Hints:
Elements: H1 5-18, E1 27-30, H2 36-43, E2 49-52, H3 54-62, E3 73-76, H4 79-84, H5 88-96, E4 103-106, H6 113-122, H7 153-163, E5 169-172, H8 176-188, E6 193-196, H9 202-213, E7 219-222
Parallel strand pairs: 1-2, 3-4, 5-7, 6-7
Helix pairs in contact: 3-5
Amino acid sequence: xxxxxxxxxxxxxxxxxxxxxxxxxxxxxxxxxxxxxxxxxxxxxxxxxxxxxxxxxxxxxxxxxxxxxxxxxxxxxxxxxxxxxxxxxxxxxxxxxxxxxxxxxxxxxxxxxxxxxxxxxxxxxxxxxxxxxxxxxxxxxxxxxxxxxxxxxxxxxxxxxxxxxxxxxxxxxxxxxxxxxxxxxxxxxxxxxxxxxxxxxxxxxxxxxxxxxxxxxxxxxxxx
Length: 224
């Protein structure tokens, strides 16, 4: 289980790469925003691993397209984020349909009370592995910041992009409208910038991400 379709697709892709020499292992990814009929057809082929967002998985369960009463493993990835996104009831309903004999893995950046309740209720003699906060990743990154008025932010971004023609990055905005405005202004000035946010369709988001990965977009303007 993963909180977003993008993360689900990423996990599914990695699992397919990892199992490329294991022809009997089939991986299927199901999520909202895509045709559920195609996903039901794929599930009829009985994949060994299903990567899912909570809402779509629960929908498929209610349609009798998938049963979880014999699963061996349940993995909750970014569990705290799933709760932050309001998937508490879906998670409870899904876990209730899984056998007590399953092995559960839970990954979470934070361990709030709601996560602790899931651990206590749905895991047997769990072992907690904590990454030391002293461990630093990418310690060679240099952080810089510029203070600017909101009305000047596009000009500031332009200056960075003009001074660093090879700049390739992500600019985060607080709102979906903000990403659209910044990307449109930069694009109108000839910069390779595009926005990505929750109001785009899944197909549009996939297309934007593909253009960014291939280098056709220099600056991806995104909501979190």
